[in-house]
Amino acid sequence: TKPMQTSLEVPLTQDSKGRFVIRGTKLPLELLLNDYLRGYSAERIASQYSDITVRDIYATLAYYHDNRGELNHYLEEQNRIRDTLHVAIEKQSEASFQKLQERLQKR
After folding, report:
1. Fewest CB within a 10 Å sphere: which of 28, 68, 89, 105?
2. Distance between CA atoms of 42 and 50, rounded to whole angstroms?
3. Measured between alpha carbons, how far is 14 from 3 in angstroms, rounded to an integer?
4. Could you give the CA distance from residue 33 to residue 31 in angstroms, rounded to a whole number?
């Protein structure tokens, strides 16, 4: 008997900013991978995001396992960008809050 041959189409595309997203959704690849690396099952991930199917999650995870080094690098870069943005937003929020406090104290 011949072994069964199957192929899963990887449901990834790049958005206008160059980030990988799950095709047909706006779900960034890094959100799916971060959930998976936290130990979430494909079914749990699918229950959190209504736009994605369990089949697409498994296809994406198979692609991740086949390209782990490259995707871990991509994931690290996306997480670094996210963390940098969070710090910038926090600083901006703190400065705005401080200015508001100063204005209120002058009244």
Report:
1. 105
2. 13
3. 34
4. 6
Residue 25 CA to residue 51 CA, distance in Å, equals: 6
For 12-21, what is the mean pLDDT?
Answer: 90
Query: In this predicted structure, what is the pLDDT of residue 94?
Result: 74
Pairing of β 12-14 and β 20-22 = antiparallel
What's the whole-model pTM score? 0.73
Report the distance separating Cα 105 and Cα 107, nearest Å. Answer: 5
Query: Which secondary-structure segment (H or E) carries 67?
Result: none
Amino acid identity, position 76: E
pLDDT at 69 over 90: yes
Cα–Cα distances in angstroms (integers) from residue 92 to residues 89, 96, 100, in the given order: 5, 6, 12
pLDDT value at residue 6: 66
Please give the helix or strand (H or E) that residue 19 lies within, else none: none
